[in-house]
Amino acid sequence: MANIVNAERISLAFGTRILLDGVSLGLGEGDVVGVVGRNGDGKTTLLRLLVGAAEPDSGQVIRNPGASIGYLSQDETFAPGATVREVVVGGQADHVWAAEAGSRAVVHHLLAGIDLGAAVAALSGGERRRVGLATVLLAGHDLLVLDEPTNHLDVEAVAWLAEHLNLLQSRGTAMLVVSHDRWFLDAVCNRVWEVHDAVVDAYEGGYAAYVLARAERVRQAAANEARRQNLLRKELAWLRRGPPARTSKPKFRIDAANALIRDVPEPRDSIRLREFATTRLGKDVFDLHKVTYSVGERTLLQQLDWSIGPGDRIGLIGVNGAGKTTLLRLFTQELAPASGTVKQGRTLRIGHLSQVVTVLDDSERVLESVQRLQRQVKLATGVESSASNLLEDFGFRGERLVTRIGELSGGERRRLQFLRLLLSEPNVLLLDEPTNDLDIDTLTVIEDYLDTWPGTLIVVSHDRWFLERTCDVTYALLGDGRCVMLPGGVEEYLERRATAASPHPTTGTSKATTTASAAQRQARKDLARVESQLAKIEAEIQRIHALLDANAADYPRLVALGSELNQALARREELEAQWLELAEASEG
Questions:
Q1: Which helix (H) or strand (E) segment is 107 a member of?
Q2: Averaged over 481-488, what is the pLDDT?
Q3: Is the pLDDT of residue 483 over 60?
Q4: What is the mean pLDDT of the chain?
Q5: pLDDT for the residue numbered 336
Q6: Which residue in 4, 69, 74, 78 sits closest to 43, CA to CA?
């Protein structure tokens, strides 16, 4: 595998804070690495060092001179006066760039609704972001370095992007991806780098494998059982008990996960929470009757009837512009419907997290800002907690507690906004894209809090992991005025969208589908065979380990057993590779 970029003992500090200390790592052809870590721990800095946009204080970064590197930063800049056509397809006419299937797919999925002749400077921030992503994808680079590529993409576009990146990876393209979207990381990455405490820990596999490996590392290092009962293991428990698509991993991995989470309860007791919510909210929360709402000539909601009760946990999805944010504003009565009624329950205390960060006093310090609202808060569980403890849970520790709000990053301001919302002790939470600008560790804290929060929750998000983790049911705005429940969740939504966009299948298509189904059936049979072989080799490895322990004083015997163990481990690695190939083929 050809190396594309290597970092050798790189270090970098800002003032007295060390972001990276003696870090060595590298990427080669076909590597797809997801980068995770808390906001401010150095993820973007690491990307900038690897692509040459910044230089380390010590150490060196070696790049293959024959490799092309494309970089999507969070702050895209374009030539003054440039049009979308000039930036994305080099000014080519439609009949030229559209002759390439890859170009058509990228433009169709990322630039739908954007005029190619428009000036990039006249576009919104989200549209410019999609223009930058499309440009990088179409440039034919050997290494794609993508900093938050799913920002401003809806669920459908994120699913397409994951599929497209998997196609590029199969052709040898390497990728380095910073993202807080855990479903996306799990779908595209074959390795994960965790940036923390000035070091980078490497894990094999996607995000789900990273959760398991990190949890196991914590378990082995823990001094007592209390350390094991952490948010990471709770997330792992939900991961294993979640939708079947997330458990498509070898049985020998599932056994390891089951052993780790055997004594971990379900993430939340939905029945108890619903009973508690009823006592706080009564029987009625929101009742929509024949609600119609239009923007110009577009009808977002048409004669909508919907009753939302206490304890309901609803995920709301739909394409950008379908009316998700509008619906939340109808719930709060910030907007009034053109016709119909929106009735609120009498005891509602609504907490609305909008996409706009609340205006705060930039001169005020973080701890002062929270204590001014409430020094003590009684959590939904009945446990009292101090404002400083909640701040620590949300990542504000040490000097960050006395940092002025004006010096906080966008992600930190978002965290503070959410925490201030919780201090108001709402019994209804309306969350509009709550995962924006938040790192994964902060998201797990929020998810853990919501697990014990007994109220009505409505979440608008493109983050599939967060939706499935926090909500019990999914609804979709389909763009035709309807809001429908999806028993199959996000997967059902994507299938509906694909069916609506596809022409009716021809006979030829049916034959191709039949052939594909036969291939999948055969792959499943082969998969079962390989799993049986894996179980046997795992038993053999355990037997050799037992013999090694029993013959610790017999050096010649240890040498022979060591050779057997190496052969068994190599065989297991070979079978695991076969399993992964067959698993992909069996899923089509």
A1: helix 101-110
A2: 90
A3: yes
A4: 82
A5: 93
A6: 74
Q: Percent of the chain, pLDDT > 90?
A: 36
Taking the C-alpha atoms of residue 495 and residue 490, their distance in angstroms, rounded to an integer, is: 9
CA 427, 433, 439, 441 dihedral sign is: positive
| Cβ contact 431:458 at 8 Å | yes
Phi-psi region of 336 (alpha: psi -120 to 50; beta: other; left: phi over 0): beta
Query: Do 281 and 256 lie in a common domain?
Result: no
CATH number of the structural domain spanning residue 421: 3.40.50.300
390-417 burial code (b ≥16 CB/10 A, e <16): bbbbbbbeeebbeeebeebeebbbbbbb
Q: What would the pLDDT profile of 394-432 be if each residue is shown by its tens digit?
A: 878 878 888 888 888 777 788 888 888 888 878 899 999
Same domain as 464, residue 322: yes
Which backbone phi and psi does 303 adopt, to 5 degrees? 50, 50
CB atoms within 10 A of CB 79: 10
Domain range for 217 is: 213-261
Q: Do residues 242 and 302 share a domain?
A: no
| pLDDT computed for residue 1 by the predictor | 47
349 and 390 within one domain: yes
Q: Which uninterrupted H or E stretch holds 387?
A: helix 387-393
Stretch 240-251: mean pLDDT: 50
What is the rounded distance in angstroms from the CA atom of residue 180 to the CA atom of residue 188?
13
Is position 356 within any domain?
A: yes
Closest among 356, 411, 400 to 148, alpha carbons compared: 411
Angle at 343 between CA 340 and CA 346, to 5 degrees: 170
pLDDT tens digit string along 549-581?
A: 787 777 778 778 888 888 888 888 777 777 767
pLDDT for res 293: 93
* CA R_g for the chain: 26
- Which residue type occupies 482? R
Structural domain tally of the chain?
A: 3
Closest CA to 318 of 500, 499, 477: 477
Q: Based on the number of CB atoms within 10 Å of its own CB, is 499 exposed (0-12), middle (13-18) or buried (19 or more)?
A: exposed
Residue 480 has pLDDT above 90, yes or no: no
